[in-house]
């Protein structure tokens, strides 16, 4: 007989061993070692086996002993789900990773627009739904301990030597400590609980081996081989293949739903998943595990019923059979198997629930209570850890109290079914959320509330027994005396199996209301976005590769990097990384360190969010979350702004370039003009110089010249010199005017005085017979301008008329006219005028109408034009005025007219 103390010691040693395993795994994960094992599909598959709790370990045999093969339904559901992994599981895992989901509450709330209400609702429902399940595990451990204690108590003659409540308390406390130690070590939600997962995997192996060992002992040790065993089964009522269609269908569906919705399953299946290729292996490996673990259930039940005294609890056959045969070692192993099943479930379930409770209830409350506190990050981390720990204690305590309240009685399987029914209510919102974009938050909330209320009323409350939570009247007459509100006969439909009754009503009404409300409500923008992300998660995630992707991953990274960094830079970066890794060639292994370095490098070019999104598209197989997209959009907006600024700059630059080009062209043109000008000047200068030189040579050499000739030559020289001087004066004048270096000497004088002065000066000493008439209009006008310069213009025009007017009686009429825009003074003679094609060019420097007489150099009108420009007016040639006609225009600003003339001007 195994002493209870001995058992407790072995138990403690086992727990210490698990601690060690978990600790080593954590340390290896931190150091980045043992990744192959920690992230292997085997560990993943084994971790899924927390589905098989003590309920499976002990309860399946009890279930089989009571209801035959029906227990298989509990394995059928999950098997179907894993075999069809690509339909639902793959989506969930992808969504879990891309949205960085931490729990099923997180997933549902984030699908429906990050709804807090939904998160809290799911969390509370999960806690309520799973509490019986945790109680069930405590109960099974206590029951199994009591089996060992019972004979001991009998032997010592003491009654009640084993205190079940105390044992349950210590087991609960131990589990709480383990969970706190390994579940709240690190905070980063992306960091997985490697320690816990490995410990769970080890426990999965232990429970499988234990159950197989007991099975083998029963078949070959007790029944005498496979043949006799089969005979026994045939003889037993259990062997009868009685399939109750509705119950089987309901239970299979229930277990499938629970497999997807149980917080602990979600934790190992989605949150702790590293690579969705693991699903592919789990799809056959997990059903195989289930098959192995259920292989000997019927034999153990049949033999147990045969050999154990009547009234023995069939739930404990796995333990009591070896004990009754004095197989102490086997009993111990069996106990450890059951212990493993119970503890792994409680640890993972508590971990999952505590994450939900602390994230969705404790933290929001804490943050709301102290506004602004969230800015101190160290503070918050501590609070989160504390919140998780407190949540773990609360959840395990709830389980403990449920265990005490339910009296620790009732068949294990029944309690398990209750839990399944509760969490299964998440299914419509979950499936609707990942397959149907039209699903809305209100729909999910209403569906959940309905389903959950029905579950509480038809399953949870009745489970406490008659007159505990619900009175007998409610059971018999219905709630509020309404006959259609009886917990076991809703809407008056009687005679259904209670489980079928609950599952059918709660799930179908849940789904119906979810669907109907969703149809009649509209999702808000975030819901829409999230809905699209969830439903289309498989479309944009593409082929997945783990961080340890093959060289193909590196190539893809290279192609992307080249696009962003440019070919040479990208190649240099890759080569340097390859060298650092000790690889010859250009493609380094896509290790996490390298990928991170690359991401940083890209971030410098395209922004952190974009870089992350791009790299994870290739490496992580992660899809891009809405936040990622928004961040990318932010960066693109910034880049757009940069690029528009650049565009502006480049436009400015091209404008400047155009201006420079124009200036350059002008300069070249000017240079040509200068050349032309210089040659023109030299030509103009040479003519008088030549005649001066030749006549002065004649004078110098010629002694035979008469006085008359001498004086004629001398006067030619004189007049040529005058011409030269005038030419040089004109040139100088023009250059001064053109350079804008003139200073105007403003003066006031009546217009007529100015004109008179000009006429007098121009005609003095002239031999011509030009008749100049000054029309006395605008007689009162007083000029206020540089009068000398203006006179210079007038003189030039009068002398031009003198020189070029080929009329028998040359006459020049000068007509001033005051206009609203200023003063016009027209100089019109009665000569031939200027031919139309030459009218525009006579103002050019050195331009002379061919054949025209006179000694001008063609600078007069050019100078006039420059002067008028300086005075703010202009000079133009007037067509069709009979002879040559020039108009000098002066602006109003050049006039200092007395008040009377202004009126005249206006009229
Ligand atoms: P210049 O200084 O040699 O007189 P201008 O620039 O004053 O040269 O005049 C340019 C040309 O315009 C002259 O060669 C002449 O042919 C023509 N011109 C100017 N005034 C008259 C006029 N009143 N009648 C006819 N032709 C004129």
UniProtKB/TrEMBL annotation:
InterPro entries given in the database record: HATPase_C_sf, HATPase_dom, His_kinase_dom, HisK_dim/P_dom, HisK_dim/P_sf, Na/Glc_symporter_sf, Na/solute_symporter, Sensor_HK_Regulatory
A GO MF label: ATP binding
Pfam families reported in the protein's UniProt record: HATPase_c (PF02518), HisKA (PF00512)
Chain coiled-coil ranges: 643-680
Segments forming domain Histidine kinase: 680-894
Keywords: ATP-binding, Coiled coil, Kinase, Membrane, Nucleotide-binding, Phosphoprotein, Transferase, Transmembrane, Transmembrane helix, Two-component regulatory system
Spans traversing the lipid bilayer: 6-30, 42-65, 71-89, 117-136, 167-184, 196-223, 248-266, 286-310, 330-353, 387-405, 411-435, 442-461
Membrane topology note: Multi-pass membrane protein
Catalytic activities: ATP + protein L-histidine = ADP + protein N-phospho-L-histidine
Record-given protein name: histidine kinase
UniProt source species: Sulfitobacter sediminis
